[in-house]
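[step 3/7] inverse_fold.run input=structure_tokens len=471
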């Protein structure tokens, strides 16, 4: 084979390996909602302990991205990608036979660690393999995005179908063929690293992990008093202040607080937070509510998320069009308001008699998908558009941290409210209790998103007054 042909083959196998791994990333976040009620029955658990299956994964997923991105540049991207595959594969294989809820929570946290490593190293491998900004590079990244999106769209459905036939444990086996395929192709991926990569900012990463972990613990801690929760939040705030101070003294900070001084970056970060409130909470907990609250089968519960998932794909091209027609303010207002209206419709319908809960859930999820899909097509681009090229890498890493960190907090808060699982002593348990709690959550989410939309408009108006170009 010629050198050129070998290079093309290596490029193809790199894309296939990264795409196979990418499919598993959102699957780990989205499919657990289908499993929660059954896992709760198996281990006679509910409430906060059961929610740590979600929170443990999201917390390690969010925090490992910071470490893996820098470590991959220094130690080798292929090497870290292989480590991520190993951790995800082993964690999910062992989850199939987990003997207790504690073991399962620990394995889910390990899987989140591996998933964050794959998210940080997969795109880096593609960027190294396609260094030029050309059509093959664009196609490679489009394939990565589509693969990750397919996990959102079809993860709950596939998980529900598998669970209907083989039980909740078998769902963890769905990850394994994709992980094995990627692992078999490792030898065909060219190694790459950056010998001049900056040192790992251990202090910044440690403070960020501690801050995020304390907030999640305050939200989800079982049996904690209000005083203890307030104390945990107070310590987290203190660590956040210390993080800002420490990172301002670092030459190569892991978290650059100064980027939030940029009005557009700040507004896109708030828009991303609303996206997670609307989309991530629905993705995890609508299937769970469908099973535990509406009495649906796991397969039907998995299919319940499809209206949102389809529109998350279909509405993506609307983002650039909306920005060109209505500007950033119109884009932000339209996207957030549409998602808020979707959650408001879910709230109204779940408190109404049949058949309105089902009808309203489909319509509400469709609106969330429409607003989320439109936003998803342009948030990253707008966040990066006003950042100097020499700070682009740092800004991209921080924006991904905002993406996953806000998802972790949103899902933790939702889990504390919905409390899927076994509640033998609770008076408002069973279908009515779960449905009522999720309805309340959807209503509060709608109000929060509308408030954030107003804050975004104020921030963008302030940008204009300070002499920046009109958004």
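[step 3/7] decode complete -> sequence:
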């Amino acid at each position: 084979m010629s050198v050129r042909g070998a290079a093309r083959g290596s490029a193809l196998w790199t894309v296939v390996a990264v795409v196979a791994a990418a499919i598993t990333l959102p699957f780990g976040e989205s499919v657990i909602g289908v499993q929660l009620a059954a896992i709760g029955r198996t281990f006679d658990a509910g409430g906060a302990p059961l929610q740590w299956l979600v929170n443990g994964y999201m917390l390690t997923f969010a925090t490992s991205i910071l470490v893996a991105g820098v470590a991959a540049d220094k130690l080798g991207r292929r090497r870290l990608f292989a480590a991520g595959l190993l951790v995800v594969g082993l964690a999910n294989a062992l989850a199939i036979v987990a003997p207790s809820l504690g073991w399962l929570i620990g394995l889910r946290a390990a899987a989140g660690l591996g998933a964050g490593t794959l998210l940080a190293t997969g795109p880096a491998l593609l960027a190294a393999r396609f260094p030029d900004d050309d059509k093959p590079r664009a196609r490679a990244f489009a394939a990565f995005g589509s693969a990750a999106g397919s996990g959102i769209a079809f993860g709950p459905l596939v998980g529900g179908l598998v669970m209907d036939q083989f039980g909740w444990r078998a769902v963890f086996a769905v990850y394994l063929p994709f992980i094995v395929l990627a692992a078999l192709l490792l030898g065909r991926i060219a190694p790459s690293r950056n010998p001049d990569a900056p040192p790992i900012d251990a202090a910044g990463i440690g403070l960020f992990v501690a801050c995020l972990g304390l907030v999640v613990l305050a939200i989800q801690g079982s049996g904690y008093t209000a005083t203890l929760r307030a104390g945990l939040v107070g310590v987290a705030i203190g660590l956040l202040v210390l993080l800002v101070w420490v990172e301002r003294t670092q030459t190569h900070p892991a978290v650059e607080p100064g980027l939030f001084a940029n009005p557009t970056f700040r507004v896109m970060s708030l828009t991303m937070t609303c996206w997670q409130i609307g989309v991530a909470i629905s993705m995890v907990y609508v299937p769970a509510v469908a099973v535990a609250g509406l009495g649906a089968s796991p397969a039907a519960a998995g299919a319940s998320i499809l209206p949102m998932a389809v529109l998350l794909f279909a509405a993506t091209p609307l983002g650039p069009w909306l920005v060109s027609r209505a500007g950033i303010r119109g884009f932000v207002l339209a996207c957030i308001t549409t998602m808020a209206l979707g959650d408001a419709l879910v709230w109204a319908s779940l408190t109404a008699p049949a058949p309105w809960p089902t009808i309203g859930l489909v319509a509400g999820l469709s609106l969330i998908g429409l607003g989320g899909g439109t936003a998803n097509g342009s948030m990253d681009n707008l966040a990066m558009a006003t950042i100097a090229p020499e700070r682009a890498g740092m800004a991209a890493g921080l924006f991904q941290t905002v993406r996953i960190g806000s998802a972790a907090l949103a899902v933790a808060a939702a889990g504390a409210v919905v409390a899927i699982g076994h509640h033998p002593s609770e008076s408002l348990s069973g279908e009515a209790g779960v449905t009522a709690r999720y309805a309340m959550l959807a209503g509060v989410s709608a109000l929060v998103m509308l408030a954030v939309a107003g804050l975004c408009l104020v921030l963008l108006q302030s940008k204009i007054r300070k002499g920046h170009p009109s958004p």
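[step 4/7] annotate
The chain has three domains: 1-200, 201-253, 255-471.
The radius of gyration is 22 Å.
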